[in-house]
């Protein structure tokens, strides 16, 4: 309750209390007059009481009673119960960004109850949700549409709420996807429904309650008398009648009408509240009606039914009581993978051996007894890895036909699900790899630094010199592995330039010829009119080398490695109908070989880190992972194509840089050679890792600097404000309590010209948003003692001379 509301509650009591106080003042004045006999004394006494009452009332209005802590604390148990009752994924966060309440459905969609916006591993999506949260704090509400969470597509609404508006309410609402009912509705009301009517077929779709949802023109004309009649929502049974012989007629045609044959096509299975199997009448249905042919025999009507089923876009087939297939339409044959003119004998012939018994049993159950429908999950013989739903419905009165079978073509849906699952897995692996590389870089910094310090005390020929060199060499190899992990997770430091792919291939061709050996031939071809791309030339050379070396290893007996560059205009991209590759202009690089090829089960895993098909000890499994990370971080796409026995190809698509024709090349100034790294002055070193702080302190002290240390940003500010002149600030970026950028932002207020050198195990690109500070240098971990000394010297040279 707000303060204004509390004051409003006090006002009714004030309206009653004021007349009582006036009456009390008059009575008191009368008593004083009676006792003392002085009008002046009585009047003064009454005025004093009225004045005190007025002051009390004024104080209550200014300082209304506050709510107790118990009353002001939200009852989150009630809020959680309300959220669960709403059947929505709801979460509530406070000003500090903590999750204070969430519904059970939120926990199902986001396991572990993560705190929004950190509900996704997608960095870009998390940034978008964080932006929406900031907008909600500012404007009161915000929205983000199209969030992908597994197989779900969600809209996110964020609203500021609470008694003092100090909470954010997050609502995750699934986006309704088009269903089979929508397809049938469009089918009946469109051109296909009109063609059915011209063929003498009436069609209507009804809901589980028996009311009409859609109908074609033929049904409207005969059931309602007008082709434009609106009968949506009416009871279907009201338009039908049954005579004493059990024949079905349209109610409007009365005695002159023809008997009708009704075919029911269940559109989906409905589940009963008790979990039992639903009957055919319990869910939405497509009803098809045709005039009964002369004689009324079910067998003669079968040809009409087959003609009808062949026109429908749904995969439908009919089987007899023994389970033999009588008819399949074209859509069913396409989904089942049947060749033209091929018709299997039994439905079990279409599925894998393990599912044949279940299919045969289901056909027998639906062929006898009461009419009912249902579906089972089966694995088709040609696509055993993707289970699909086989729907069955018992039909009567169609001669030999006893069961209607239906298959849904969900190949595209399954493909999209696999792509989403693969993308999610690669994203998660990338996040893990980046985190491992960061922690590993801190350890390697300490190892390499201590090796450098020990080498300063030893000379070549000492007994320990070679051992220390070996430790440092292995540490540098480990640092190379961490760089590959960062490349895969798209967290490495890139130096992009405007370049042409043929130039990169030409620069690395000489090296490739030496790497490939004498048994492997290198064939290079370039297309015309390639657009310029924006990428790191050194990283692109690494991509080409890694792909060429993999191609060489796939041809143990020798062969040919082909490297092609060519332009891919937007029109060709649209013709490719590639779901992942957006339409646009690209420059492509293809590296192919004539080797053994890659099996399909391995092809989906080749970009995962540490996955290798080489013998133990002959590969790290990071070559293709590095390629994948570099290409994705450069804004490109990579696809692997292979056929067993005919080699493999890796195709890279890099977007053409739109500003390549107007951007002037940046003149690179050659760095002046500097070998002297000794320096003077006071350095403030802020690092939360003890081992890194210790080795950096010793290294800088040996270079002549006076070093002051701090464990985090807060201690760093205390040292900076201690009165001693600080010439250089060296700080880690990610630290507990207060990170490096936050500390530097405060330090610059009192020391605007203080040189700053950031160091981190994360890449500069990844930290650029969080740093967002001008005139700072960056040193990636792991670094050697000499690299730290050079970085400190260069940072001090940027200090203004006037300071």
Automatic annotation (TrEMBL):
Source organism, top-level taxon: Bacteria
Residues in Response regulatory domain copies: 682-796
4-aspartylphosphate carried by residues: 732
Keyword Nucleotide-binding attached: no
Residue ranges of domain PAS in the record: 301-370
Keywords, comma-separated and alphabetical: Membrane, Phosphoprotein, Transmembrane, Transmembrane helix
Domain Histidine kinase: from-to ranges: 435-658
SUPFAM superfamilies documented for this protein: ATPase domain of HSP90 chaperone/DNA topoisomerase II/histidine kinase, CheY-like, Homodimeric domain of signal transducing histidine kinase, PYP-like sensor domain (PAS domain)
Transmembrane segments: 16-34
E.C. numbers: 2.7.13.3
Catalytic activity: ATP + protein L-histidine = ADP + protein N-phospho-L-histidine
PANTHER family, A to Z: SENSOR HISTIDINE KINASE, TWO-COMPONENT SENSOR PPRA
Protein name: histidine kinase
Source organism: Sphingobium rhizovicinum
């Amino acid at each position: 309750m707000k303060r204004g509301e509390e004051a409003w509650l006090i006002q009714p009591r004030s309206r009653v209390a004021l007349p009582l106080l006036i009456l009390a003042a008059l009575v008191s004045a009368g008593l004083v007059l009676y006792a003392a006999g002085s009008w002046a004394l009585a009047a003064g006494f009454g005025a004093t009481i009225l004045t005190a009452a007025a002051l009390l009332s004024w104080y209550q209005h200014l300082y209304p009673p506050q709510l107790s802590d118990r009353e002001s604390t939200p009852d989150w148990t009630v809020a959680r119960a309300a959220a669960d009752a709403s059947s929505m994924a709801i979460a509530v966060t406070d000003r500090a960004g903590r999750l204070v309440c969430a519904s059970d459905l939120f926990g199902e969609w986001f396991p572990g109850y993560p705190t929004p916006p950190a509900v996704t591993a997608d960095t870009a999506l998390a940034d978008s949700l964080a932006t929406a949260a900031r907008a909600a704090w500012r404007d009161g509400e915000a929205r983000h549409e199209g969030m992908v969470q597994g197989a779900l597509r969600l809209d996110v609404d964020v609203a500021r709420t609470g008694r003092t508006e100090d909470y954010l309410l997050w609502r995750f609402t699934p986006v309704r996807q088009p269903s089979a009912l929508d397809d049938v509705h469009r089918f009946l009301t469109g051109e296909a429904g009109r063609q059915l009517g011209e063929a003498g077929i009436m069609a209507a779709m009804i809901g589980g309650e028996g009311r009409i949802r859609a109908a074609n023109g033929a049904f409207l004309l005969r059931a309602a008398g007008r082709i434009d009649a609106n009968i949506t929502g009416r009871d279907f049974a009201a338009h039908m009648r049954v005579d004493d012989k059990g024949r079905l007629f349209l109610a409007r045609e009365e005695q002159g009408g023809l008997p009708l044959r009704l075919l029911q096509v269940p559109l989906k299975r409905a589940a009963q509240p008790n979990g039992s199997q639903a009957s055919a009448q319990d869910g939405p249905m497509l009803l098809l009606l045709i005039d009964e042919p002369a004689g009324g025999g079910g067998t003669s009507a079968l040809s009409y039914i087959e003609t009808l089923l062949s026109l429908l876009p749904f995969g439908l087939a009919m089987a007899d009581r023994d389970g033999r297939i009588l008819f399949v339409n074209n859509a069913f044959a396409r989904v089942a993978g049947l060749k033209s003119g091929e018709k299997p004998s039994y439905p079990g012939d279409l599925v894998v051996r393990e599912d044949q018994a279940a299919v045969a049993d289901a056909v027998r159950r639906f062929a006898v007894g009461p009419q009912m429908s249902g579906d089972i999950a089966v694995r088709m013989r040609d696509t055993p890895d993707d289970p699909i739903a086989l729907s069955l419905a018992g039909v009567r009165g169609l001669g030999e036909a006893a069961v209607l079978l239906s298959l849904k073509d969900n190949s595209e849906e399954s493909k999209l699900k696999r792509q989403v699952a693969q993308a999610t897995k690669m994203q998660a692996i990338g996040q893990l790899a980046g985190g491992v590389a960061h922690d590993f870089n801190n350890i390697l910094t300490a190892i390499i630094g201590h090796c450098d310090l020990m080498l300063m005390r030893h000379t070549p020929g000492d007994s320990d010199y070679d051992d220390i060199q070996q430790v440092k060499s292995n540490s540098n190899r480990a640092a190379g592995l961490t760089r590959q992990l960062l490349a895969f997770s798209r967290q490495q430091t890139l130096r992009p330039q405007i370049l042409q792919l043929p130039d990169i291939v030409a620069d690395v061709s000489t090296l490739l010829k030496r790497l490939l050996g004498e048994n492997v031939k290198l064939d290079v071809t370039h297309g015309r009119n390639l657009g310029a791309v924006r990428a790191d030339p050194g990283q692109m050379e690494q991509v080409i080398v890694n792909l060429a070396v993999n191609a060489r290893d796939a041809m143990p007996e020798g062969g040919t490695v082909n490297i092609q560059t060519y332009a891919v205009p937007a029109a060709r991209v649209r013709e490719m109908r590639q779901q992942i590759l957006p339409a646009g202009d690209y420059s492509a690089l293809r590296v192919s070989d004539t080797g053994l090829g890659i099996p399909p089960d391995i092809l989906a895993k080749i970009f995962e880190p540490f996955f290798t098909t080489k013998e133990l000890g002959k590969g790290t499994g990071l070559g293709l992972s590095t390629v994948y990370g570099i290409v994705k971080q450069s804004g490109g796409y990579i696809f692997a194509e292979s056929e067993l026995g005919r080699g493999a190809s890796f195709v890279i698509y890099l977007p053409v840089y739109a500003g390549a024709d107007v951007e002037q090349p940046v003149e690179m100034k050659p760095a002046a050679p500097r070998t002297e790294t000794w320096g003077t002055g006071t350095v403030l070193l802020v690092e939360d890792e003890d081992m890194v702080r210790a080795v950096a302190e010793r290294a800088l002290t040996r270079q002549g600097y006076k070093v002051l240390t701090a464990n985090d940003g807060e201690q760093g500010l205390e040292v900076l404000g201690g009165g001693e002149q600080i010439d250089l600030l060296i700080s880690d970026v990610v630290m507990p309590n207060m990170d490096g950028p936050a500390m530097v932002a405060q330090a610059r207020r009192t020391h605007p010209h203080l040189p700053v050198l950031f160091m981190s195990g994360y890449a500069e690109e990844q930290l650029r948003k969080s740093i967002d500070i001008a005139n700072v240098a960056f040193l990636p971990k792991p670094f050697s003692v000499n690299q730290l000394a050079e970085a400190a010297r260069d940072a001090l040279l940027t200090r203004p001379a006037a300071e």
